């Protein structure tokens, strides 16, 4: 358990922390056991406000995917505490965590993780079906999002019939279709040509403008850096620069 002092560093009271989209306090993560145990993230303190796009940048292997996987509740921190939408993730039972994630978090994986046996529109509809929508209603909504991403002509294509960039857009549609309040994109434009990359970022910018939502983008792609409202640099598992989280656009 963290002391009250530790919880309140950077001037955040408990109530302020709960009003943030994301707050990390003293978050570390180790991989491996015994002599092979390695600390990949070291005492991360990070606040992310609603309304805007936070970019997470840094060299390969510095811990970006690990950090966003912790924020998404896909990994558990070795030390520290993570709050998302005011909820302390560690206080949730495994079943409640799955439910919380399904409802509130859209995660675009670096590897697209599409289901090979489902076509494009069925893949994109999965989060809605998980939430209990009928397949026909879910597919209808998924088709709208895919169309917005320039994939309207590929709804019935299977992943193996799609290019890397097209698969990525299906993965993006799947992460947005249930209208999550937290959207996490791990390299969303890496496999996309310039035009598709800009279409994706235009959609992210529109979504991020909502004061109810926060978008976190992990990227190496210098073409999209200007879309950031705030940029966080990670180096060897530590935050290099973390301007205060004010939710304002800085671009
Ligand atoms: N499941 C795992 N088991 C062991 N080590 C891991 C595991 N996942 C990540 N790591 C290690 O943690 C470090 C950070 O990995 P991570 O994937 O977070 O980096 P990254 O910044 O996302 O890199 P990239 O830009 O290449 O995607 C790496 O050294 C990686 O080898
Ligand atoms: Mg990564």
Structural summary, described in words:
The strands form 2 sheets. The chain has a 6-stranded mixed beta sheet, sandwiched between helices. Helices cover 32% and strands 23% of the residues. It contains 8 helices and 10 strands. α5 packs across α6. Bound molecules: adenosine-5'-triphosphate (ATP) and magnesium ion (MG). Adenosine-5'-triphosphate is lined by residues 31-32, 40, 58, 60-66, 110.
Features:
binds adenosine-5'-triphosphate, 32% helix, Rossmann fold, four-stranded antiparallel β-sheet, disordered N terminus, 8 helices, binds magnesium ion, 251 residues
Number of strands: 10
CATH superfamily of the domain at 51-75 and 98-241: P-loop containing nucleotide triphosphate hydrolases
Approximately how much helix is present in the residues? Answer: 25-40%
Low-confidence stretches: 1-12, 244-251
Secondary-structure arrangement, i.e. CATH architecture of the domain at 51-75 and 98-241: 3-Layer(aba) Sandwich
The computed structural class is alpha/beta
The number of distinct helices, counting runs of at least 4 residues, comes to: 8
Overall, the morphology is globular
